[in-house]
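User: what does the whole thing look like in 3D?
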Amino acid sequence: MKKLFDRVFDGADEMFALAQKALDETIAELGENAPVSMPNTAYHLANHLTYFKRQIMSLKDLRAAFEEDKTWNIHEPDLGSVFKTGYATFAAAEVIEACKYAKSDDPYNGEYHGHLSDAEVRELGVPLVTNDIPGFVVIHGKAPTDEEALELIKGYQARGIFVFLLGEVIAQARRLNMNMGFPVRVVAVGPDVWQVAHIISFVNRAAMIFGAVQPGERWDFDDYTFWRIHAFVNAFDPVSDLVVSCGAGAIAMGFPVITDDPKDMWPVPKSIIIQPDTKDFIETSLEARDIKLKITKVDIPVSYSSAFEGEIVRRDATRIDFDGSRFDSLEWVRMREIHEIEDHAIEIIGPDVEDFEEGERVGLGIVAEVAGKNMLTDFEPVIERNFHNFINCAEGIMHTGQRDLIRIRISKDAFNAGFRLRHIGEIVYAKIKSEYEALIDKCQVKIYTKSEDLKELRTEINKVFDTRDARLASMTDETVDVFYNCILCQSFSPAHVCIVTPERLGLCGAVSWLDAKAMNQLDPNGACQVVTKERVVDEHVGIWEDVNENVAAQSHGNLQQVTLYSIMVDPMTSCGCFECICGIETYSNGVVIVNREHTGITPLGMSFSEMASMTGGGVQTPGFMGHGKHFIASKKFMRAEGGPARIVWMPKALKELVAPKLNATAKELYGIDNYVDMIGDETITDDPEVLMNHLSEKGHPVLSMEPLF
Amino acid sequence: MPFKHNPQVFSSSIGETVLGTGEKALTLGGENVWSLYSFDGAVKNPPAVGIEFSDQGPDRSLPGVAAAYEGAETLAELAKKAEQVPGVQFVAFRLAGSDPNGDNESVADSVAKVKEVADAISLPLVVTGSNNIDKDAELLPKVAEALQGKNALLLNAKEENYKGIAVAAVTAYGQKVSGESAVDINLAKQLNVLFSQLGIKNENLVENLGQGVVGYGFEYIISTVERVKLAALTQNDAALQIPVISPISTEAWTVKESLATEEEIPEWGSREERGIGLEVSTAVASIAAGSNAVILMHPASVATVSKLIAELV
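Assistant: Here's the predicted 3D structure for the full assembly of 1022 residues, as structure tokens:
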């Protein structure tokens, strides 16, 4: 088997021989003073400008430049030399093409596109830089059949990928009357390998125009093309040495080569990929170059809009009722390995809607299997929780609940419009891919309706839920490296900053540490940013220098310090959308907590809204603090002041909601059983003196604690 | 006790952005003192005043406007008249006809109009698009292409469409671009950070922080402009050290106080005077808060505001 390096070197020599011949002939014909230029460009011969900073004006200049090209055609068996030889091959190819343009401004008579003008570079460059065109492919050679050539080109076209064609594939597409040209994003560049020089010239000019990369700065060019130009090569069997040498240059620029030719070919991960089935070229190529396609439309037969989110499907309008309260049902986002997933595959396992009686109640399982480089199992529930919004926005479809307690109804109207189970899959697929673009590269959806499958899945998913709950429970402020801030509310509360930690979710109750982490991944410049916690001042009460710096910067100087686990000293501020407020109750030296839903008066003599008026607006009010419901049972709640043992009063509904976890926390911290029963509520009293009696009667731990002042 | 003057000169300053070319080129920003505080230090480039007209032609029912544009019919003639209005430092041209909810004129037609205006004037040009996110994404890159060499400023790059507009305007065709955010310091900053991630430097940017008119929640806008300047100057926040532009004309002339005719509400008096009053008071307050450029419609407003700036700086 011939070595890959040797193929590159032999191919390069072939190109240099061709270039030498073309150059000698052209000089003989036109004389060495004849001008050389490509039409409509300010970048001379752009590849020579890029590599050698040469501004070639005449054949004489070109001859001198070609001598320098040769110094890059170095046959040393190391990767650097191979890459350099690849670039030299492009330079030699440009010499061949320049000779043609020296003789004529339009050497291809419109039959092939040849050179791309600066205007075209700018026009195509804008959508490439902004990712509106997700990338471009260079297809070279001859497809196994004409039909396959067409299918491949149209497949790329349908995905918005720009297509450059070289060689026989052009004739193949023409035989099937493929419409080509710059406006339809398929360009027949030229019949031979060396017209690749025009594509490389296009890329190099894009780097100079859009990346402000300076001529001669090769590493900057490599860097720019690798990160910004999402290009790749599809080379059909047979791949000659000449093509391999060009491939070396492409790979040096960060463009992988995908081929079906296994002969003397050496696969290199992410660079040279042998895909024997040309029908899989697209999928393989997109994956190799990390190209993600944008989903813009949900493909379903009913309307899709947030206007339908609150729509209720009544029983008599229901075609089918997937009822998780009676039949095993579930929804599940499951992280998989990337190779286990076929993107956009939607599989219905079991009977579909029309196979059931009208109004029948059955079970349903929706499993979205996802994979992506930035995906973490921690994000599974973050995505899963949004199934409710995703599915509910379809007209005539109602969704409630989550995990294994879901209910989905499909209305008769939606059914008659053609809505079937696969459309639930389409919705889930499209929404996951578009909303979680930064996390998810591939997604497939499986929908189950057979009771035996559902039973089995439910057992499996319950184990997953247990694992997730255990993970959440084990996640403490001490076990994570960073916190996140959240400034979503600054639009109306400009000085407020939430610090979100695993044990203290945002005061609105809507942003947990995992949510904040996912939001940060999805939008690194958005409302949630990483807050380091390296410089500890006092971990017990929750003071870190870096947290303080972050709060100072994010509040634009309004706050200087925050003590995460205290309500008395520099407590965290509130915007106004807190779920609960706690405020000190002076008789007992404890705190009263009231949630937004509670309209009555508290033992402080104030209602929720009166307390809210003292707490919001991003100001620190010692003794008052807004927080989420789930923070109440946290061991970090008021830790500086002694923890949840300070709680003396809560509305009954809130008590019931937090009881299981709060009791467990109190048991662990203080060894008290049924702690919640010691706490007062509105059915006991809203009078502070009566409350004191209740606390003494129950032996509430607050009575033996240090005074708060 | 004698008065002791402690000049507040900051070590940070607002970046400079140049619009237009040649002798008439205009530099915005650059200051390191509070707006108009020339007693604290030199105001490097005083706030600039521009005049706006739309492709629908001036409102000739206002005598002052009719007089300024008298005899001008084509866009080129209107543009020439506009740049001759005393006090004008740049011309703002609004492509109102491109709005898909209005005439929905084709991109090619709008581009031809911009070309006509640009070729007629020597002052820097500011272009406002259709104010429709999707249409602007298509239109403004083409405008940028047509204006190569003019160093014009394109307004209205928003979070939803900034990429194509900014890359085309600045990187591909050498224009300037202004982000537009909705009266929120964090959104303004985020947009500027996004620009920088496209490789666009501050010197190619201006920012429109969202505009309103006095009496319509204007305090909110003023406080946003102030907070942005505060962060830029006192906290050296580079993502906010960008000149602010305030497009006031469209706001000032589209509220009840400037639309109601004298027949409808006689006790309010002259409609023209009401509009000028709104425009001038909004502009002056915006400048006092820190705006580096105001876009006005009425020649009398331009004269008043430019005179005020000249006397204070």
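In plain terms: The CA atoms of residues 14 and 241 of chain B lie 4 Å apart. Chain B touches chain A at residues 141, 145, 163-164, 167-168, 171-173, 184-187, 190, 193-194, 197-199, 227, 230-231, 234-235 (CB under 8 Å).
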